[in-house]
């Protein structure tokens, strides 16, 4: 099998946003470690902050004169035009008799990539950066299926999924008028089930067993996750201790020294990823909730969000809290002084906490985050979900009490025990004979 794989060349096409780049880069590293030649395709706008390669994964950057538009629809059109114009030349440039390009692995939302791949004589593999549960919800509630969702206080019941209330569903299900273009795009992923040659999911079998089994009975899906750096899981990929292609420059020394001076399990790590944006009132409530929790906290606040922090809060930080624009995420999450992860529940962040055995306080904002929070609190039982007021804001008392419930109260022990359990199961999935490792090997053998 390795002899065959050594002669294969796989192209990987993420959408140029950090949260989509990270898991696909990690998957690429797994393929490359098995002898496959892997090239990640991106744009000059993104690659200017990147090395020319990440480990054994090569970076092929497409030049362009104009910057990507800020408007989502126009940005997607811009990306499509750039890729469709250049992909053929890239395939021709990178192909040779010894390493022919055979497969294009693409981010599941850019569904036009499967047609481009087939036109070029390549196989196409859709890569889903969300959970299997999300895909199942979108599959069942596809507008083309005319599925009506009751929102009159009823619980939504779908095959293989837990009971879901309105606040547990992805926002595109009930707020589709607010995001018409994005909603259409999200549901378009379902076409991959009919067209793609492979369907990869960044999850692992036992994490979403019921829904994985259900989806696998319909389509030949492959779970290949969790796609986080190997040194935090199976340690089979040497020196793979970070995603490797960061668009931001973390401040490592300051926060690690600060964490080193704190007691084991005493710090709340607060991070809302690279995109989530809180309203000014919510930032204020979060700030004072952290302060009144009586726990130490390390809070990552992007530069664009700093102006929302209350002035009097900043003056009272002292040694209780540390505010940074960015930090080495895995080093912080894995640090022994961190006892809890206060998170927006993006899928990457959720997997990272599970894989590192860190309990969570879940404060979802939109998209898939409410569903991930539902699983964190009710299915995996690795944390608690905050309750918002009718206006959508979570007040400071709710934030402080939720933190104490995870950090200090009796349920906190259960959350920690469950987090450690999932950490072990995640490691087993990517280990040599694990379910995800076997799925990757099976894919390679089919090349």
Describe this structure in words.
The protein has 447 residues and is of the alpha/beta class. The protein contains 19 helices and 14 strands. Strands 3-4-2-1-5-6-7-8 form an 8-stranded mixed sheet. A 6-stranded parallel sheet has the order 11-10-9-12-13-14, sandwiched between helices. Helix 12 links the parallel strand 9 and strand 10. It is globular. The N and C termini lie close together (9 Å).
Global mean pLDDT: 91
Q: Tell me the strand order in the biggest sheet.
A: 3-4-2-1-5-6-7-8
What is the tally of helical segments?
A: 19
User: How many β-strand stretches?
Assistant: 14
Helix coverage percent: 40-55%
Anisotropy-based shape? globular
Protein name: Glycosyltransferase N-terminal domain-containing protein
Family: Belongs to the UDP-glycosyltransferase family.
InterPro entries: Glyco_transf_N, UDP_glucos_trans
Organism: Anisodus acutangulus
Name its key features.
447 residues, alpha/beta, 8-stranded mixed beta sheet, 6-stranded parallel beta sheet, disordered N terminus
Write a short abstract of this structure.
Residues 9-43 form the Glycosyltransferase N-terminal domain. With 447 residues, this protein is an alpha/beta fold. It has 19 helices and 14 strands.
Write the layout of secondary structure elements.
Layout: H1 2-5, E1 9-13, H2 18-33, E2 37-43, H3 44-47, E3 53-54, E4 57-62, H4 72-94, E5 101-107, H5 112-119, E6 123-128, H6 132-140, H7 171-174, H8 180-188, H9 192-195, E7 198-201, H10 209-218, E8 221-223, H11 252-260, E9 267-271, H12 280-292, E10 296-300, H13 311-315, E11 321-324, H14 329-333, E12 338-343, H15 347-356, E13 360-362, H16 369-379, E14 383-385, H17 396-407, H18 410-430, H19 435-445
Parallel strand pairs: 1-2, 1-5, 2-4, 5-6, 6-7, 7-8, 9-10, 9-12, 10-11, 12-13, 13-14
Antiparallel strand pairs: 3-4
Helix pairs in contact: 12-17, 15-18, 17-18
Organism: Anisodus acutangulus
InterPro entries: Glyco_transf_N, UDP_glucos_trans
Keywords: Transferase
């Amino acid at each position: 099998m390795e002899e065959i794989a050594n002669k294969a060349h796989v192209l990987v096409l993420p959408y140029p946003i950090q949260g989509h780049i990270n898991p696909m880069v990690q998957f690429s590293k797994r393929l490359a470690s098995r002898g496959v030649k892997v090239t990640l395709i991106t744009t000059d706008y993104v690659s200017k902050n990147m090395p020319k390669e990440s480990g054994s994964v090569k970076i092929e950057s497409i030049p362009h004169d104009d910057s990507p538009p800020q408007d989502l629809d126009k940005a997607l059109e811009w990306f499509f035009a750039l890729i469709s114009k250049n992909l053929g030349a890239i395939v021709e440039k990178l192909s040779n008799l010894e390493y022919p390009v055979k497969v294009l692995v693409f981010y599941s939302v850019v569904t036009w990539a499967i047609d481009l791949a087939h036109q070029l004589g390549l196989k196409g593999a859709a890569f889903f950066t969300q959970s299997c549960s999300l895909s199942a919800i979108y599959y069942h509630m596809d507008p083309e299926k005319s599925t009506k969702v009751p929102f009159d206080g009823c619980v939504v019941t779908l095959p293989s999924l837990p009971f879901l209330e309105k606040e547990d569903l992805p926002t595109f299900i009930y707020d589709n008028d607010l995001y018409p273009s994005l909603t259409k795009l999200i549901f378009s992923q379902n076409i991959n089930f009919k067209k793609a040659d492979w369907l990869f999911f960044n999850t692992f079998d036992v994490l979403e067993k019921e829904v994985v089994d259900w989806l696998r009975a319909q389509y030949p899906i492959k779970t290949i996750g969790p796609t986080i750096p190997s040194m935090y899981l199976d340690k089979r990929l040497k020196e793979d201790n970070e995603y490797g292609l960061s668009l931001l420059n973390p401040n490592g020394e300051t926060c690690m020294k600060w964490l080193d001076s704190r007691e084991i399990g005493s710090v709340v790590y607060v991070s809302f990823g690279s995109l989530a944006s809180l309203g000014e009132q919510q930032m204020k409530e979060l700030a004072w909730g952290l302060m009144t929790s009586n726990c130490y906290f390390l809070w990552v606040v992007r530069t664009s969000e700093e102006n929302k922090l209350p002035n009097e809060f900043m003056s009272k930080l002292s040694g209780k809290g540390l505010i940074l624009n960015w930090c080495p995420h895995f080093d912080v999450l894995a640090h022994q002084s961190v006892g809890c992860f206060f998170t927006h529940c993006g899928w990457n962040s959720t997997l990272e906490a599970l894989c590192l055995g860190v309990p969570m306080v879940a404060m979802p904002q939109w998209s898939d985050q409410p569903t991930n929070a539902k699983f964190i609190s009710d299915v995996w039982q690795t944390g608690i979900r905050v309750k918002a007021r009718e206006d959508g804001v979570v007040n400071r008392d709710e934030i402080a009490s939720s933190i104490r419930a995870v950090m200090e109260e009796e349920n906190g022990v259960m959350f920690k025990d469950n987090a450690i359990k999932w950490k072990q199961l995640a490691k087993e999935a990517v280990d040599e004979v694990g379910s995800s490792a076997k799925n990757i090997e099976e894919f390679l053998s089919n090349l």
